[in-house]
Description:
Elements: H1 9-16, H2 38-47, E1 49-54, H3 57-62, E2 64-66, E3 68-71, E4 77-80, E5 85-90, E6 97-106, E7 110-116, E8 118-126, E9 131-141, E10 150-155, E11 175-178, E12 181-184, E13 193-204, E14 213-222, E15 239-240, H4 266-277, H5 297-306, H6 317-324, E16 330-336, H7 340-348, E17 353-359, E18 371-381, E19 387-390, E20 401-404, H8 406-414, E21 417-419, E22 425-427, E23 432-438, H9 443-451
Antiparallel strand pairs: 1-14, 2-6, 3-4, 4-14, 5-6, 6-13, 7-13, 8-12, 8-14, 9-10, 9-13, 11-12, 15-18, 16-23, 17-18, 17-23, 18-19, 19-20, 21-22
Helix pairs in contact: 4-5, 4-6, 7-9
Amino acid sequence: MSRSEQPSRRTVLTAAVAAAVAGGAGAVPAAAAGTPGAADAAQAAARQIDNRAWTTYTDWRSGTAKGTRAVAGARPGVVIGAPIGLADYTDPHTGTTATWEYATWTSPVHRLAVPSTEAIASWNAHTPAGTWLQVELKGTYSDGTDTPWYVMGRWAAGDQDIKRTSVDDQTDDKSTIWTDTFAIDDPATGLRLTSYRLRLTLYRKPGTKKTPTVWRLGAMGSDVPDRFTVPASTPGLAQELAVPRYSQDIHVGQYPEYDNGGEAWCSPTSSQMIIEYWGGRLTEEQLAWVDPSFADPQVCHAARFTYDHQYAGCGNWPFNAAYAATFKDLQGVVTRLGSLTDLETLIAAGIPAITSQSFLKEELTGAGYGTSGHLMTVIGFTAEGDVVANDPASPSNAAVRRVYRRREFENIWLRTKRYNASGKVVSGTGGVCYLYFPARPSVRQHMALAAVGVR
């Protein structure tokens, strides 16, 4: 995301929901790290966040398959079995029309535990050359009417078959898709999304036996209250994870076709740090396209392969999570958390997080900049409870590690409303984060993820 104070498409999104009805989530105490129980269920309810993901063989068998089939094994998924037909797709970013075989999988209806003002889908998949996928969402409102089928993303791990893209101009006058996020247009009316289905369409070139394999599909629904400040949490952990450090700023001016490096690359730079923390590495062959004079070519690679050709940037949240999951045995999800206590629970289990926040320069001591939207990684907490972050908005890799004041950080991350430099009321992200973690989490990791509402 840009560090400028100029409105972005995501700023427009969050402004559109800034009138959300107050109530529900605050920064509530969590159960002790690694010890989820009844308190976790209460915490999940208080957070006003609902997560549902389809990941198991039983999950994939529960959906409606038209030409797809579930596959078992160490990492269950859904693949093309027998295509149900042919479809033409004209890529809006190349003008090329091609014909594809396709098959679909539709989830059962999921009734949201939290009637929601927003929903964000995310997915993990393998798309070999000659294949790609589309994710759609269709929901029911609290007034009993239905949304249309909204496209949440057209995605491939590579960029030679289609240009991965979000789809603009989707609305039914009750809700709108803003890049990667479903949002109720006027939450003040009380209208909410109460349930949804997700539909996968898997595509491949005619005649090939290749297929996308989708391992994870889900969505996060939320109704985060309207707030300029959030309740203070109590420090409970002093621990720091050894996460690689990469600067986005050393890439200023690189690859204009992928938004020119620098401040526009906070999301892929943060993603690459966490991917490498989990052992993800790129081969020399994969990096051969990068100018050899550029440092940290893996950051350039992350930018290229998270780039959303409609959004014209690398900050599409689900595209970053999907990119992370292209690395062996790694999962990625987009969610919201309710407090720094949630982050402490994850850090205690060895799981760092990528957080999205916006703030004025004076609101985050030591940052040295203001931003209308920026991603950084949270890698630990000091003995005093302050946040240890790998902030890619740094002049060098050595300068990436920062310590930010706990109270300042939790407020800029969790709030939904703020004042910009002109004194205008604009919005915050309300605790959005990416979580990347093993495909087969340890017991402790599984418990920590469950405690923050992710399975």
